[in-house]
Structure formats: structure tokens, C-alpha cells
Amino acid sequence: MTSHRDSGQEGDDQRSLSPRTARVADVALVALNNLDRAVAVVGADGNIVFSNPFFAKMVESDGAGTLRACIVMAADQTEITASREIVHDDRRTFTIETKRLPQGVLVTAEDISARLAEQVLSAEQARTDQLTRLGNRLMFRERLKAIAEQFHRETDLAAVLAINLDRFKAVNESLGRQVGDTLLGVVAQRLCSALKPGDIAARLGGDGFGIVQTGQSQPQSAAALAKRLVDLLGRSYIIDGHVVSIGASVGVAVMPANAIDEDEVLRNSDLALSQAKQDGRATYRFFAPAMNDQMEARHRLEVDLRRALALREFALVYQPQVNLKSMRVNGFEALLRWRNPARGMVSPADFIPLAEEIRLIVPIGEWVIRTACREAARWPSPFNVAVNVSAVQFGSPTLVPTIVSALAESGLDPRRLEVEITESVLLKEREATLVILRELRAMGVRVAMDDFGTGYSSLSYLHSFPFDKIKIDQSFVRGYPEDPGGAEIVRAIAALGRALGMTTIAEGVETEAQLARVRTDGCTDVQGYLISRPLAPELIDEFLRSRTETATDPVAA
Nearest CA to 338 among 365, 309, 367, 363? Predict the structure, then answer.
């Protein structure tokens, strides 16, 4: 076969062309010769009539002649246009395109090996979590889908483990995102060290990870791995000079026993994970069908809760607070109640955590503040009213404006409003929280720390902000006299409050013995069923009249 026409023939052709056509032909020839794509014309006899330099270079590097043979074979096809892809002996990949012409067949070829390699790399990057170098959610779902499609041919089980880090958010907020990111990388390394060949691991987002086990006996293998991860990930870390302690909760679902596709198994492993968290965290749970019922019940509760505010199903009741020296009422704590037409009275323990989780506590909390201020303004005497404010509310920019507006609309003296917060409020954006507390104090609003002693109980909180009141959790009070440790805590908190000039109020007092004990231990105030159960607003006047008959020397609010 000849690869080019002889130069004499080419010169004759050029002389027979018009000057303009010759110039166009010259330009076209220059373009073809500089094209980074192989171009050739194969005649009807199978000989290469014309080729550009790139084609010649490509063919010269084709030691075994594979590429050249494929090009000639492509020229024999009968279709007007055609395209095919071939893999060369040296693993390079080429595309060959042909177009039939009157003079033969136009053949173009291109080495696409580098492009394919880039596509593979790009696909890998799209399926890789750049922080931990594990797979990401996309990769995880694709692998799960492929595994699920095999179940009709194989009898092996696959286990999916959903993992969530406990207390990671607090680390991120207190030590910074850089420490948090480094911690996630170390967690990924520990996680991988517990895996066996064939296991699939991915970071599913945030502080969530996923693992797929295949080719192992189930559920025994998943249980062993889950137990190992709870222990391994719960050990202390040293990150940038900080000793960091977190934990891990794990939920497990088995395919196809618990699910038949990737969506269902992911959902079921998440349900098991939620159960592990509810059971105290730092543990693992397997999916059980009853968890579906719990999820559906939670969804129905959420739907009803979202409607409750608009349907005016919420109400406030008020529990009196009494000064131990005079036994006179000096304030009331506002407590939220929800009466649903179908459910009846719903326990705050059931709906408050859900409201906080879905951030519905912000509008509900605003309603509580406005209602408490409005109702307290109608009381016959200037008693204080205490309102609980959650950490979620403190993260809302509307908190201070809501309090300002509620006080203005109700006409309530700011000194009669008391905002109760728990120690968890100060764990989140502590400096920003202190700014808000100081704003409230500047307005005259009083601030109390609720449930002191049950959380982190850092004395630095009391040093960084001078609270007006410390509330001692009822768990320390109700143990009298069988719980000497609780009594010691009450005495210590009361002494601390006395030294700092703060009121100390014991919650949950239900018996005369408990009342006498907290008075002896140094508490200044008390509240609980012994004094009164929470009262509806319309019963407060009657309660106060009954107290007035037995008390003397009113206590200033």
C-alpha cells in the first residue's frame, strides 16, 4: 500500500487548480498537517491515499500493526458513517471514525487514553470525600445498589452500619472547625483499621459514617464490628495539643433480611442509630420492625406539633416559688402545656425535645415569652415570672427583640421577668450567649441558671456571668435522706450561692422533711408539689388569697 501520492502528480494537480482554489487547498493542507488528530483517506483498493503527519506518527508507533489493520478494516465497512473504539495492545484506547466519500473513505483516529484517565480520576474524585479520603454518600449508595441487585442470585447477607459521633458538635464549636476536621480524619483512620478486606467505608456527611460488610456471617460479624467501633472510636484523641473525648453510636441493618434495596437499608440503619442514641449513646442497636412504628409515631407527633401553635392548643401553667425565711410567694415559673384533641395532655418530655430538634421551639418559645409577660402583668401583686429559654432559642437572632417587644406590649416591669437557662446554653457560642445575657441584664431582666449540677457544672460560668439565681435540680432533693451524696451537693451549691450573693432555689420539694432539709442546708427559696402543683392562670388569685391567710410580712418581689 502507498501512503502518499508522488510529488509530481501532486504538482500537476496544483497547477490545474485556479490560484484561489490552490490557496484554499494550501491552507487546508497546512491545517490537516498541524491537526492533533490522525486523518487519512483510504482508497477503494485499500491503499492509504493521503495521511497527515499525526497519522504517520501514530502508525509508526504501532509496532504490531494493530491500529493500521483496524483502520483498513474500518474502511471496508458499508455504512456511510461509523464510529468504533479499540484498545491497543499497549492498553491505549483509540476512537476511529469513518465517512464514505466518492474517492474512498475518510478515516480519523484519536488517542483518548489520557481523556479516559481524566474521566476515571474525575469519577473517583466525585465519589471520594476529600477530607477523610473515604468514599462519599454517592459511592456508598452506588455500591449498595450493586450489592442489592445480586441478592436474587446469591444467598450471602450484607450488613450496613450507620455511625454517628457523639459530642462532636461540642468539639467543633469549642475548639474550632480545623480541630474538628483533623479529628474526622483520625476517626476515619481508626474506622478503617477495624475493617476487613472487602468492607466498604464512607463518610456520609458531617460526623456520620457508613460501612457495608459482605461475604461474612451475619448478624454476628456486624455485631462484633459495631462493638469494636464503639470502643475504638470512643477512646481519647490528641488533636493539635488538645485531648479530645468523643463517642460513637452505631445502627445496624441487614440485607435482605431487614431491607431489599439501598434506600430501605439506609433508612433502617438510621432508625437503629436513632435508637442507639435514645438508649444512652456510645452503644449499638440492630434494626427491629418496631422502630418503623416509632418513626411513624414520631412523624405524626411532629405533624400535630406543627399545627398546635396555630390551633391554640398550648397553654401556660404557673408553679409558685416561695422564700424559705418568710414562706411567702415571691414568683412563679411558667410551664408549657399542650392539650391535643386526639392525644389529650402531651407530656413536655415527649414534645419539647422534638420541638428543639426541628427548631419549632423558636416560635413556641416566643409565644411563651409573650403570654407569660401578658398574664403576669395582670397578677394582683408584682410577683416575678420565670421563663425557660433553650439553647436553640439563644441561637436565634429574634430572642432579644421578642423579649423587648413582649415587655413593651404587656407593660410588665423588666425586673419582674426572669429568664432561666441551662448550662448547655453556655456550651454553644459561649461568648455570643454572654453578650445576650448582658443585654438582658442591662434591660433589668433577671437571669437564673436552671438544673445546676446536672450538666458540666463549670464554676467558670458563674464567674463569667453573675446570675441572679441558681436552681438546684430536683434529683438532688428527692433523694433525702437516703442519698447523702445529693445532700452534700445541695449544701455545696447553697454555700456557693451564698458566697456569690445569689438566690438558691431547691426544686421538687414534695414533703415536709425535704423542706426542712433544704432550709437547713442553706437554700433561700423552694418550689415543688408541697407548696403547690402548677396552677392555671385563673387559679392564681385564689391560691394567693389562701397563702395570705397564713403568712405575714410580705416579701418584696
Answer: 309
> pLDDT tens, 43-81?
777 677 777 887 777 766 665 455 666 666 655 665 666
Question: Please, which pLDDT band fits residue 555 given cuts at 50, 70 and 90?
Answer: very low
Do 295 and 362 meet the contact criterion of CB atoms below 8 Å apart? Answer: no
- Percent share of the chain, pLDDT over 90: 47
From the list 209, 303, 212, 221, the residue with the least C-alpha distance to 249 is 209
> Over 514-536, what HEC string results?
HHHHHHHCCCCEECCCCCCCCEC
The closest alpha carbon to 540, from 320, 275, 353, 348, belongs to 320
Domain 298-548 in CATH 3.20.20.450: yes
The architecture (CATH level 2) of 7-115 comes to 2-Layer Sandwich (3.30)
Domain extents in the chain: 7-115, 128-288, 298-548
What pLDDT, in 10s, does the model give residues 182-227?
999 999 999 999 999 989 999 998 999 999 998 888 899 999 999 9
- pLDDT of 533 reads 96
Residue 235 burial by Cβ neighbours in a 10 Å radius (0-12, 13-18, 19+)? exposed
Q: Can you name the CATH fold of 128-288?
A: Alpha-Beta Plaits (3.30.70)
